[in-house]
Here is the input.
Amino acid sequence: MLYFKTADNFSIINAVNINRLSGNFSGTFPAFSRSYFHALLNNDRPNIQVICQGITHFNEILPNPYICRRMSIVHNILPKSKFSFTDLNATIAKFPFDVKFHRRDDSLYFYWIPAKSARGVDVSHEDGFIEIRNTILSNSDDYELTNLLVEQILMLTQGKIYNEDKEIVLKMPLFSIAVIEELINNDCEAIFFFVNKGEDLTISGPVRDVHFGKKVLKKHNLLNSGEFKKQIHDIILEVNYKLPDYEQGMVMQMKNGRSGKTEILKLITNTVDLIIGKYDYIVFAGEPKKPLMITNSILNNILPCEWSLVDEYTIVAPILSTPSWNKLLDAVRINDVTDKVV
Here is the structure.
C-alpha cells in the first residue's frame, strides 16, 4: 500500500514494501502521473524520488482520499510452524469448487477461481512472512477466495495475521460482506473518475488484460459510478473467460528510430483467428517488402464489421474473407505511420 501526503511538494511514503508485480497499467496520463499510477496498480518498485518531482496539485489529480490510501490491500501472516505452498495447494485441491494457481516464482503464487475471479489473489512467502495481496477491482469471489486461503494458511501454520498497520486481526472472516461491498464501491468510484476524465486504464485479469476508456463507457451506457459498478466486473469476466479460444499471435520488439524507445509490436496476418490486445503499434503484413504500421486507436476507427471490440482495445479478430482483408489493408495504407516510427 502507498500512502500520500501533501505539502508544498507532493510526496509519497512507501508504508509497506512494494515488492510484487500484480498486474499491468497503461494510460494517457502526463509522465509524472503515469509513473506513480503504474506503481500503484502494479505494486511495483517505483523510484519514489523521480515519481515525486513536479507533483504539486493533489486535489486536481486524485478524486478523494480513498484512492491515495489503497490500490491494493496487503495482509501478512506470521507462521508459527513451517509453511509450504505444496501443503497449501494440496488443501486447496480438496475445495468443493475449482481453484487454479500459477507459480510466478518460488516464493509467489497467484490463485483464482475460473470464470469467476476478476483479479485473483497473490500469496507470497519471504522474510519469514506470508503475504496475501488483493488488488483494485477485485470482486466478491476474489475476496471470498482470500478468506478461504487465509483460513487454510492459519490452520496449516498456527500463525497470526496482521493488517497493513501491523495490527493483529482477530475477527474472521478477513473480509465481511459489508467490507467487500464497501471496497468494491470505492474501487468503482475511483476508476470511474479517471475513465470519465478521458484516461485509458488497463488492469490484468487472470487470463488477459482488460482496457477501460471512453468507448467502454459509451458502449455500455455507463453514465455514473453506480452504473459502472453494475457492469465493470461483468466486462472483466467477459474479456477473461468468454472470448473465443483464438491465438494471441506474434508479438515483437523494435527500437523506435526517432525516440530510441523500445516499442512493442503486434503482427497481424489473415491466416489465423486472433485476439488483439493493446500494443504500441499494430503491424500488418500487407506489403511484400514494407509492412504497414498503425496504432490501436487507428485500428479501432477502421475496424472491419466482422471484428468486434470487447473493451477499449481488445479485439476479437476472426480470419477475414479476401475482399474484407483487402479493404482493411487499403484503410491501413491510408493511415500508415511507419515512416514516423522506423
User: Anything to note?
Assistant: The chain has twelve helices and 17 strands. Residues 72-178 form a domain with the TATA-Binding Protein fold (CATH 3.30.310). The two ends are 40 Å apart (CA to CA). The longest helix spans residues 177-196.
